[in-house]
Structures are given as C-alpha cells and as structure tokens.
C-alpha cells in the first residue's frame, strides 16, 4: 500500500424577441446576491447533446428582448453517492474533472462516498466567459434541486437550525492540481446553525471548532482575506491561554476565536454572509474564479497543462474528523500543507477496525486504477468515509520506486510502469544534493528546518513572497522561496 498524504469556449449569441419558459423553483430559499437579479428566463432541451442557458432583459421603451445564449454539450450537473453513480465514459474526466469522475467511479464500486453533485467544467468555461461570472437562474435552480438529493440521503436540511446539513465545495480539473485550487469546508454555518449543531451533537466544542474553521476558510478563499490575519488571531488566543495545539482550546476559547475571526471580516470591510444560500452561491463562484487565479495559471504553465475547459465544482455533504478521539481526517489541511498529520501507521494502533477497512479500500482503489493513489478521507465517530482519490503526484526517486513496486505487485507491466516515469522525474534525480547529510558537521551547521517543496539542493537568498522572488530575479539574485507551513 502506498498512500500519499498530501474550454471548449462557451458560445454566446444574441437573438431578439424570443419567448422562453423558466424552470420552476425547487426551494423556498431566497436568491443570493451573486446571481443575476434581472428578468432571467431559460430553456432546457432534454437531449444529451445540447443544454441552453439563457438570460434576457427588457427596457421600458422597447418590447424586444435581448437574450444571451450559452450552449453546453452536456447536462450541467451530475449526481454521485449511494444510488447515483454519476456520468461515465470517455468524456467523464474531461467534463466532471478528475475529482468528480473519481467520486462517481468510487460510488459505482460501492465505497462509502458522502452524497453530492458535480457542476461540470463546461459551466466553468461559461461562467468565466459568456455568463460574465454569474450563475444563470436555470443553473442555480438545478443546483438547488441537486441539493435536495443530498438532504434526502443524509436526512438533514441545509440551513436548518435543528437538523443542519453542512457542505464542502471543492474544485476538480481533469488534470490534478493539488493545493493549487480552492476548497471551502463547513459551508452552511452561521450563529444559529452553530448553536443547533452543538445541541444536536451534544459536543459544543465540535460545533465551535467547525465554525471557526469555516470563518477562516470562507474568508480566505471566497472573500480573499489573507489567511495570516486569522492565524495571527488564533495564535494570540493560544498564547493567552498557555496552550500550543488547536485541540487544547476549550469551548470558551473557541468562542473567543470565532469572535475575533468575525472581527477580521469587519476590519477587512467584508461582511460575512449569514444567509447559507448566499454562502453556497459565493463559494461556487469562488471556485470557478480560482481557475483563472494567478496561482492556478502559473501552475498550469509550469506543469504544461493545456486545452482544459476549466475546473468542475464538487458540492458534497460534510462528514467530520473533529468530533472527538474516534474521529480524524486525511484531507484538505494535509494536502495544502497547513497541518502536519500523524503517520498513517498510528491509525492501526488507535482504531484497528477502521485501519483494516481503510487498507481494504486503498487496495481496491490501487488495483482499480493501477497506480499509486492520493486519497482524502474522513473518519467520523469510527466510521470511514472516502472523500476523493487521484493518481498521486511524485518526485523522481518516488516515481522510480513506485514503477518497480507496480511491476512486482502485478499491477502494471514493465512497459506500463516505465511510462509513469516522466522526463521531469529523471531531471529531478540529476539535481545537485548535499552530501553526508547525516554527518556531525552537517547536522551542526543546520540553522532551520522545513518541508521540502522542490527537489535537490539550492543556494540563494531567502524570499518570503512570490513577488520578492520576481524582484530578486530582475537583479540576478538567486532566491529560495520560504512560506509558513
């Protein structure tokens, strides 16, 4: 077992004086501010080859309507989870993204996947193009209808104070871009929902811990507030209380963290939306916008990723790894490098039954995909949930070892295994390295340690922002980029 913890352009056309019937609303939740508020109408042709999303407006001086039309070649939303295997076929990964296609596939082979739905990469292309970064009414109503399938499967209600359902909103392009795209967890929380979760679960600490996580992630990903402003606040609270770990904070401490996190929102002149419907709309929009963010664009340039429609958005029921000693996670904080996890081997000691199920699932996935998998999972009160899987990224040495192991375990032929060792892997093996790193003289000369983000050894001036690296480059100064863990 090897587990890593870690567009077609949208067509827009203008046509005049067209009568179009709109979808009926599927929920009483109000329309969030992000969505277009003009007179929108839509047409849905029930075919597999064409999906038309339209918006129209009228002026007082003219009865003619101008309609903007975007043609989608596939249905905009695909369901996954128990009883919903999602789309399949050769186009699945291209349309649903790697994460959405894998969630659909994991559902089809019977793994425990929390229910959800995927908004296609075609919608991302249209969102960034013909839709002018707004979701048309008909697409939004399909989102709300898909949301009811999650509520039915989980037996909870999104936005309910008494029986709340929380959501995750994750990106997922056809080619994996780990840590580059955006994720929002615990979506659907506000003051009233937090109190309801505390009462329902009988675990107030879990509820307030989830709330503070959401305030930070939503603020950073959706409202673009620097994460450091939130981290400074929680560090201050830990210092004041004389503790070192987040897990050592009491309920009252976490309530203080929440108060301070809300203060960060206010000081940034960005109001936190209490309306859960608005949260969902803004989060979907943020993930789509992230496709055109500087970080994602630069990653695609470096990795030579081209000819993709965009990212899909995966909306999924939340399961929780912070509900006590019988819960845990190998998820977003780990992939992004924000938190350092315990070794997976400790799971065998602490929860042997869960570990046995986890190993069984990972073996199924590795055999199914014929490659090393990068898996995100959550354990909620002793129950394992598989959140996603993808072929794992690997460095040069790891690529060679994995190729050899795949052959030895009869998961790949020699030719197939060799094809997984890429030219850039061989390049990494040729990078300069420090010798005798175990020697006493080397160990004594080390002044700081961190997590390596690129192969080989380097000499240069420390830089703590991307902009500083660019500035140094202009003056022919070599740099080593260092970031907070």
Short summary:
By secondary structure, the protein is an alpha+beta fold. It has 17 helices and 16 strands.
Q: How is this structure best described in words?
A:
The protein is 41% helix and 17% strand. The chain has helices at residues 92-108, 121-127, 137-154, 191-201, 204-221, 227-241, 251-267, 276-290, 294-303, 332-335, 345-350, 352-369, 396-408, 414-419, 423-429, 440-445, 466-474; strands spanning 3-4, 12-16, 51-59, 62-72, 77-80, 116-119, 157-158, 164-165, 167-173, 183-187, 311-317, 328-330, 373-380, 383-391, 461-463, 479-481. Strand 13 (373-380) and strand 14 form a beta hairpin. Helix 4 packs antiparallel against helix 5 (204-221) and helix 5 (204-221) runs parallel beside helix 7 (251-267). Residues 1-51 and 54-68 have low confidence and may be disordered.
CA radius of gyration is: 24 Å
Give the helix proportion (percent range).
Answer: 40-55%
Q: Catalogue the unreliable spans.
A: 1-51, 54-68
- Helical run tally: 17
Mean pLDDT: 82
User: What form results from the Cα inertia axes?
Assistant: globular
Q: Give the end-to-end Cα distance, rounded to a whole number of Å.
A: 27 Å
- Largest β sheet strand count, sense and barrel closure: 5 strands, antiparallel
The amount of beta strand, in percent, is 15-25%
Write out the strand line-up for the largest beta sheet, numbering strands in chain order: 5-6-11-9-10
| Beta strand count | 16
Helix/strand-derived category reads alpha+beta
């Amino acid at each position: 077992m090897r587990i890593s913890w870690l567009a077609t352009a949208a067509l827009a056309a203008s046509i005049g004086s067209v009568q179009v019937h709109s979808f009926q609303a599927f929920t009483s939740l109000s329309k969030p501010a992000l969505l277009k508020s003009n007179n929108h109408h839509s047409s849905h042709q029930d075919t597999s080859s064409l999906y038309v999303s339209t918006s129209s407006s009228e002026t007082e001086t003219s009865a003619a309507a101008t309609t903007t039309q975007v043609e989608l070649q596939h249905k905009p939303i695909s369901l996954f989870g128990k009883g919903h295997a999602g789309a399949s076929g050769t186009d699945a990964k291209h349309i649903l993204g790697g994460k959405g296609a894998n969630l659909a596939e994991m559902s089809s082979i019977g793994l425990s996947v929390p229910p959800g739905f995927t908004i296609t990469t075609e919608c991302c292309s249209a969102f960034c193009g013909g839709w002018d970064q707004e979701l048309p009414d008909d697409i939004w109503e399909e989102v709300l209808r898909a949301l009811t399938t999650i509520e039915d499967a989980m037996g909870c209600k999104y936005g309910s104070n008494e029986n709340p359902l929380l959501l995750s909103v994750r990106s997922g392009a056809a080619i994996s871009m780990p840590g580059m795209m955006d994720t929002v967890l615990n979506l659907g929380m506000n003051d009233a929902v937090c109190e309801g979760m505390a009462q329902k679960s009988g675990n107030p600490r879990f509820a307030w811990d989830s709330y503070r996580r959401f305030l930070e992630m939503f603020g950073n990903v959706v409202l673009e507030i620097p994460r450091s402003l939130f981290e400074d606040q929680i560090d201050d609270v830990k210092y004041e209380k004389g503790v070192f770990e987040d897990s050592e904070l009491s309920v009252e401490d976490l309530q203080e963290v929440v108060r301070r996190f809300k203060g960060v929102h206010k000081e940034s002149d960005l109001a936190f939306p209490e309306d859960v419907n608005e949260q969902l709309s803004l989060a979907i929009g943020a993930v789509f916008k992230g496709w055109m963010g500087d970080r994602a664009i630069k990653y695609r340039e470096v990795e030579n990723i081209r000819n993709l429609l965009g990212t899909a958005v995966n909306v999924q029921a939340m399961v929780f790894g912070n509900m006590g000693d019988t819960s845990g996670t190998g998820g977003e904080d780990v992939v992004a490098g924000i938190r350092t996890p315990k070794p997976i081997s400790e799971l065998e000691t602490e929860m042997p039954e869960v570990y046995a199920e986890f190993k069984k699932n990972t073996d199924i996935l590795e055999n199914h995909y014929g490659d090393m998998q990068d898996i995100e999972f959550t354990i909620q009160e002793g129950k394992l949930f598989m959140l996603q899987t993808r072929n794992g990224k690997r460095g040069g040495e790891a690529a060679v070892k994995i190729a050899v192991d795949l052959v030895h375990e009869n998961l790949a032929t020699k030719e197939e295994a060799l094809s997984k060792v890429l030219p850039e892997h061989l390049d990494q093996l040729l990078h300069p390295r420090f010798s005798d790193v175990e020697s006493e003289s080397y160990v004594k000369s080390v002044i700081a340690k961190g997590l390596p983000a690129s192969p080989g050894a380097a000499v240069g001036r420390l830089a703590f922002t991307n902009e500083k690296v660019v500035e140094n480059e202009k003056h022919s100064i070599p740099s080593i980029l260092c970031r907070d863990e």
